[in-house]
Specification:
- The complex is a heterodimer of chains A (410) and B (153).
- Chain A contains 13 helices and 17 strands.
- Chain A is α/β, with parallel strands linked by helices.
- In chain A, the strands form 5 sheets. In chain A, strands 4-10-9-8-7-5-6 form a 7-stranded mixed β-sheet, with helices on both faces. A 4-stranded antiparallel β-sheet of chain A has the order 13-14-17-16, with helices on one face. A two-stranded antiparallel ribbon of chain A has the order 1-2.
- In chain A, helix 3 crosses helix 9.
- Chain A is globular, with a radius of gyration of 22 Å.
- Chain B is an alpha+beta fold.
- In chain B, helix 3 runs parallel beside helix 6 and helix 4 packs antiparallel against helix 6.
- The N and C termini of chain B lie far apart (57 Å).
- The mean pLDDT of chain B is 90.
- Classes of the chains: A alpha/beta (410), B alpha+beta (153).
Chain lengths: 410, 153
């Protein structure tokens, strides 16, 4: 069966050399683990190689030619990312290691203390749970969370009870990496704003897959990571309104983030450099810049449409596998292309191992979202996740593989 | 039909123990009870050990996990129950060596019995922890039971 596509996937796939490899002789790779990390197109690999071959130097220090070129490329990448997410100003884009680091940064510098409350949700990735747990332990604030409904959504009936006058931060995920659920950002943000709380959005699974305009989300800060959006590992983004970044204290101290240093005290650089202590991931920033160029050229609306069509095809295929239960939204209403499932009586580890023998790469385990797994009474799931280069044959291979799993273990 | 690699991993003997586990379900009496979790995959086991002098009188367990971890618990209980503790610990050592062999070992069937079927698992680094979960829990329980007995003596 064919699904409507908005660009020619067979052409796109040629940009990703890894998709042409075999896992073992005669067994081609079927990559359905893009929610863990995406593959990288030649355009990104070439940009990073070109940087390292011709322009490598440290940034923001030295006046030699290479230093100036490297600085221009690094800051140019920041500007590209800013444009890509609709930031008002490139200074609102802070580069770090990944989403986790961005969320830890916020958990360290946002102001709250004893008697205050921090609100998260039960569907968060551990990276948006543990930093807030640590921050609450450190400051004496209380951690609360919004629960989930049986069909994999935030229990918004709980919203006014959980978010109160004492709430100082509301941090939640835009699109769940486990369930695929796309959360109603405006509704949660509005309630948080009504009580004067800061709103933090983990956009690790949304920015790579759909058009995201940070300015219109109604949130104060957004975190996402380069390697899930065709970029390299080692670079992530914190976006926050400039006034907020200006008002917050630094997180890590070191070179590049200072204004003036004496032995007794220091003053700090303006954002974004205030939050970028030490030599930053320069080649990775160049790679991320090339990645957003690549995504921008395809168009995020087209990427989203492609993935929505394929996700519907995937849900339909999974629905026909006897004994299979999808964990998360069962239909296409407000959901993305990460689909978790359990196959009755067969442990996800066995499912994943078996599929790998046929070249099909899925993620198995609790997906760093153990509380949500516990909520749905499963210790682990198998998860198939799509991206702009996935095609229907990938999904057909998964469904065939699942039939083989059933006949082997059944 | 499945690929030969898979058949080496999922030998029929493993699948039999997985489908019909031996000694599953927690039993009385016991001298030590431990809970072990594999944090990367969520596999878990609660295991009880009863010592009668220096004899492993009983091992029972409850848990959930993949076929490898469940079959391994079943095979392990079969192997150690009724053995002197020192012999059972030797079997444990032998099984550890098998798991570290990267599929190259020729396991001693006289010592390991059904556990020889796990030789294929040692080729899969991500699965070795699954096979070892019950064994590690058992060793932990044995250490606790011995410490307890020592303390009481």
């Amino acid at each position: 069966m064919d699904v409507a596509v908005t660009y020619d996937v067979s052409v796109i796939r040629k940009d990703f050399p890894i998709l042409q490899r075999e896992v073992r002789p005669g067994v081609p790779l079927v990559y359905l683990d893009s929610a863990a990390t995406s593959q990288k197109p030649l355009q990104v690999l070439d940009a990073m190689r070109d940087y390292n071959e011709h322009h490598n130097a440290n940034v923001h220090r030295g006046i030699h030619t290479l230093a100036e070129e490297a600085t221009a490329l690094y800051e140019g990448a920041r500007a590209k990312v800013a444009t890509f997410i609709g930031a008002a100003d490139p200074r609102e884009v802070v580069f770090g290691k990944n989403s986790t680091e961005a969320l830890n940064l916020l958990a360290h510098v946002l102001p709250f203390g004893p008697g205050d409350e921090v609100v998260i949700t039960e569907m968060e990735h551990h990276s948006n749970i543990v930093p807030w747990q640590l921050a609450c332990q450190r400051t004496g604030a209380t951690l609360k969370w919004i629960g989930l409904t049986d069909d994999g959504r935030l229990d918004l009936a709980d919203l006014d009870r959980v978010i109160t006058e004492r709430t100082k931060v509301v941090a939640f995920v835009h699109q769940s990496n486990l369930l695929g659920t796309v959360n109603p950002v405006a509704e949660v943000a509005a309630r948080a704003k009504a009580v004067g709380a800061y709103v933090v959005l983990d956009a690790s699974q949304s920015v790579p897959h759909s058009p995201v305009d940070v300015g219109s989300l109604g949130v104060d800060a957004v975190a996402f990571t380069g390697h899930k959006m065709c970029g390299p590992t080692g670079i992530g983004v914190l976006w926050a309104r400039l006034e907020l970044l200006e008002s917050l204290p630094p997180f890590l101290g070191g070179g590049e983030m200072i204004d003036e240093v004496t032995m007794a005290a220091s003053t700090f650089a303006a954002p974004p450099h205030k939050f970028e202590a030490g030599t930053p991931p320069i080649a990775q920033a160049v790679g991320l810049g090339a990645a957003v160029d690549y995504l921008g050229e395809l168009g995020m609306t087209a990427v989203h449409a492609h993935e929505q069509a394929l996700t519907a095809y995937l849900l339909e295929g999974l629905g026909a596998v006897p004994g299979l239960r999808v964990i998360g939204p069962q239909d296409m209403t407000a959901r993305g292309g990460a689909v978790s499932f359990v196959l009755n009586g067969i442990h996800p580890h066995d499912v994943g191992q078996f599929l790998d023998e046929y070249g099909v790469a899925v993620r198995v385990g609790h997906h760093c979202a153990r509380p949500a797994c516990l909520r749905y009474g499963v210790p682990a799931t198998s998860r198939a996740s799509l991206y702009l280069y996935t095609d229907t044959s990938d999904i057909d291979a998964l469904i065939t593989g699942l039939e083989r799993v059933r006949s082997f273990f059944g | 039909m499945s690929a030969p690699q898979l058949q080496a991993l999922y030998q029929e003997i493993i699948l039999e123990h997985y489908r019909t586990p031996h000694h599953k379900g927690l039993r009385e009496p016991f001298d030590a009870e431990v809970y072990h979790l594999n944090p990367t995959c969520g596999d878990e086991i609660t295991l009880r050990l009863h010592l009668d002098g220096d004899l492993v009188a009983d091992v029972s367990y409850e848990g959930q996990g993949c076929s490898i971890s469940q079959a391994s618990a079943s095979v392990m209980a079969d192997l150690v129950i009724g053995k002197p503790l020192a012999d059972a610990l030797d079997v444990h050592e032998e099984f550890l060596r098998l798991m570290q062999s990267k599929g190259e070992a020729t396991p001693d069937e006289d010592v390991l019995e059904d556990a020889v079927a796990f030789v294929g698992v040692s080729r899969y680094p991500a699965r070795i922890k699954c096979a070892l979960l019950a064994w590690m829990a058992w060793k932990d329980a044995a250490a606790q039971a011995v410490a307890e007995a020592g303390g009481a003596a």
